UniProtKB/TrEMBL annotation:
The keyword Plastid does not apply. This is Uncharacterized protein. The keyword Amino-acid biosynthesis does not apply. The chain crosses the membrane at residues 40-62, 74-93, 121-143, 149-167, 188-208, 258-277, 356-377, 383-407, 428-455, 461-484, 505-525, 537-562. Keywords: Membrane, Transmembrane, Transmembrane helix.
Length: 574
């Protein structure tokens, strides 16, 4: 039997008061940061984003034709299932144990408190309400014109998002209690489901896209292919937990049926909470049983457990550290002093790359295939241009999240980094060099394959290799500068993170558009002002020089952000 013990209502009231007090503190901190001169630029950008978003929702979205309510319901429920599929695959392949995704402070003060695990689960769910409300408001602005009752839409979307968060955490807690054999089986099963979903999307994409279409058409039709997958019968059967809430969002009139959907939607939340508590209790029992089994057998260092896997990894890191330390100390004797400091930090980052080399390699296989996909569309002109565009997009949008082995990983070690006797520029160079080199390897491999297939010429390869390399340097420098100016914890949530994600994405798209426009203007200037024989060399030299100048300015800006980083006010609390 699962231990579904509950604390007294007084305990839950106290935890709710703690959640409200934390929310009030975070709200005051947000207002303080908004008024801070150090963050005035972020405040202006965030306000501009909300203004444009509301203008777009009120005027643009309201003027378009209303979508089919049934299709909207299918996409909403099916989209939740697709996200759960992604999270399920990620959980079974992850070796990282999370205790209800609590911060270190919460683990210290609440994990050791004499309260039931059920209370901790309810406390966690109370904390995700604000994030769900913010996401609901953003979606309601976009979908309000498609339904007759926006209030029902808001309730249905909010319940769907909250239910998704609870079920996501339930699956995570359940997967952490699997044995090694069960985990291997689940990896095979969930990977098979993920591959089947991807193959279905590819099949739907091929069905709705005429042969020989440009890659842009494939990109646009990919959303339709994902929508078809979300609407298929298999996915809809899996979306039964969201059936009531998704039906509530497209309510056409208030009657007994809509009241029944409302009751079922709200009632699904307590059931999901009980399921989460049961999964958490089972996971706790299984982990305890695994520890007792290893203790009785005397296999403390067994490689068949996650903890032993981590221990063996650390032992391998220690051996690698000893060898590489001797190598680094030998090489550093011949290095200039400024390069020597950065080399030590690069060596430190290489330990993480060695530990997660398989994950990093897999993270770049999919972008490489995506960038090379235009080569498989027969009869398409300018395949080389599409490949280069894909590399630029992946460099700016996919590489930074996949390679968080820079300042973004070292938030808890900022005090140590600030105590090192290093110049700011040397510190920045040591932190971002390794992720930049990994990104360059991805670029060079993709460009080499595309060049062999399309034959663009040596000049094209040299020009775009040089500019894309500068793009990689500038991208990681900008990401780290933004993080140092507005740092956040890895699993931070709330309105700040929602604004940050949207503004950063739109900012990257704007930068890509401006870069393309600048290159076109520079090309037209070269054609008008120079003889034909000098157009291509001057254009290539000028384009590479401008991109590397911009990248160098961003690196210097990151060094300035690191110099002004203040541990007393810039470090976000737990």
């Amino acid at each position: 039997m699962f231990n579904l013990s509950w604390d007294s209502p007084t305990v839950h009231v106290r935890l709710l008061q703690l959640t409200m007090a934390r929310s009030r503190f975070r709200s005051k901190r947000l207002l303080h940061r908004i008024r801070s001169p150090r963050r005035i630029l972020a405040t202006a950008i965030a306000l501009a984003f909300f203004f444009l978003y509301l203008i777009n929702g009120v005027f643009v979205m309201s003027s378009r034709a209303a979508a089919d309510p049934e299709r909207l319901r299918l996409w909403l429920s099916g989209g939740m299932v697709l996200y759960m599929m992604y999270h399920a695959v990620r959980c079974v392949w992850s070796r990282r144990l999370e205790d209800l995704e609590f911060s270190e402070a919460e683990k210290l003060w609440l994990g050791g408190a004499p309260i039931q695990r059920s209370s901790l689960a309810v406390y966690y769910i109370n904390g995700v309400f604000i994030g769900a409300i913010i996401k609901t408001l953003l979606l309601v602005v976009l979908l309000a014109s498609d339904v007759p009752y926006p209030l029902m839409l808001a309730i249905g979307v909010f319940v769907s998002l909250l239910l998704l968060e609870i079920l996501r955490l339930t699956w995570q807690r359940w997967s952490e209690g699997l044995s090694d054999r069960q985990r291997r089986l689940m990896r095979v099963a969930m990977s098979g489901v993920g591959i089947a979903a991807v193959m279905q999307i590819i099949a739907q994409l091929a069905l709705v896209t005429p042969a020989g279409s440009s890659p842009g058409v494939y990109v646009l039709n990919s959303f339709q292919a994902i929508g078809r997958l979300a609407s298929c019968d298999a996915v809809q059967w899996l979306s039964l937990p969201w059936y009531a809430s998704s039906s509530l969002t497209v309510t056409s009139e208030i009657n007994l049926q809509s009241i029944a959907w409302l009751t079922l939607a709200i009632g699904s939340i307590p059931l999901a909470v009980k399921l989460l508590i049961a999964a958490d209790d089972w996971s706790q029992r299984q982990q305890l049983l695994d520890e007792q089994t290893r203790l009785a057998s005397g296999c403390y260092g067994s490689t068949t457990t996650a903890h032993a896997h981590k221990a063996n990894t650390h032992k391998g890191d220690e051996r690698w550290s000893e060898v590489s330390t001797r190598w680094i100390s030998t090489v550093q004797r011949w290095m200039p002093s400024r390069v020597r400091d950065s080399a030590a930090l690069i060596w430190r980052q290489s330990i993480s790359v060695r530990r997660y080399s398989g994950t990093i390699l897999f993270s770049f296989i999919v972008p490489t295939l995506l960038c090379l996909s235009p080569l498989m569309t027969g009869g398409v002109q300018n395949q080389w241009a599409y490949v280069i565009g894909g590399i630029a997009m992946c460099t700016m949008l996919l590489a930074p999240p996949a390679l968080r082995i820079d300042f973004r990983r070292d938030l808890r070690r900022m005090l140590l980094l600030r105590g090192l006797p290093l110049r700011p520029l040397s510190t920045v160079a040591g932190q971002i060099t390794l992720p930049v080199l990994i990104t360059l390897c991805f670029q060079w491999v993709t460009i080499a394959i595309a060049a062999v297939v399309t034959g663009p010429g040596v000049s094209q390869v040299v020009v775009w290799t040089g500019m894309l390399a500068a793009l990689a340097v500038g991208t990681f420098a900008a990401e780290n500068a933004l993080f140092l100016t507005y740092p956040h914890h890895e699993r931070a949530q709330g309105i700040v993170m929602v604004i940050r994600a949207n503004v950063v994405f739109l900012g990257k798209v704007l930068v890509i558009s401006l870069c393309v426009a600048a290159l076109l203007i520079w090309m037209s200037i070269c054609k008008q002002a120079l003889p034909d024989a000098f157009v291509l060399p001057v254009y290539a030299i000028g384009a590479i020089a401008m991109t590397w100048t911009l990248a160098a300015m961003l690196v210097m800006g990151t060094a300035w952000c690191w110099r002004r980083f203040d541990l007393s006010c810039d470090m976000p609390p737990q």
